[in-house]
Amino acid sequence: xxxxxxxxxxxVPGDEGYSDLRDVQLAVxxxxxxxxxxxxxxxxxASGLEIVxxxxxxxxxxxxxxxxxATGHPIRLGWYRGEQVEYFDLGMSTAQLxxxxxxxxxSSAAGASGYGGAPAETVEVDPxxxxxxxxxxxxxxxxxxxxxxxxxRLTVVSTGQVTNRPVIAG
Length: 170
What we know:
Elements: E1 7-8, E2 21-28, H1 41-47, E3 50-59, E4 62-63, E5 75-80, E6 83-88, E7 92-93, E8 102-103, E9 128-131, H2 137-141, H3 146-151, E10 155-158
């Protein structure tokens, strides 16, 4: 690895298809290569350097300058279209998807969940939506596990969306 060269990134928040999860590609540089010469994906592609898939998936969310984490994850510098950006290095990841459950209390009186007035059975939030069969908010707030969802026989509707929500044990 050329340690003095920031990572070249192919997208930032707001770009179509942006993801914090990155499929690492290695650019093979010859001895004496000036690693500071490449500051964008376009420059990298034009360089003629060999690109080799590393078969690594990393979690690198782009963050505003000066951001910090309570757990002290390092902030790294990267290049995007010739501009320096900062990202958290949350380490390696996998392509294995887990489930996330968002909760909304359905209202039989109003027939709506509170999300744009749509019926609770059709509301979609990312990536799964759970609508209790009761309008009891205390019951909904007490749910702490998938077993609770199953025991209450809640309606679970998949939205088909994927979200990146790192859980950092500490």
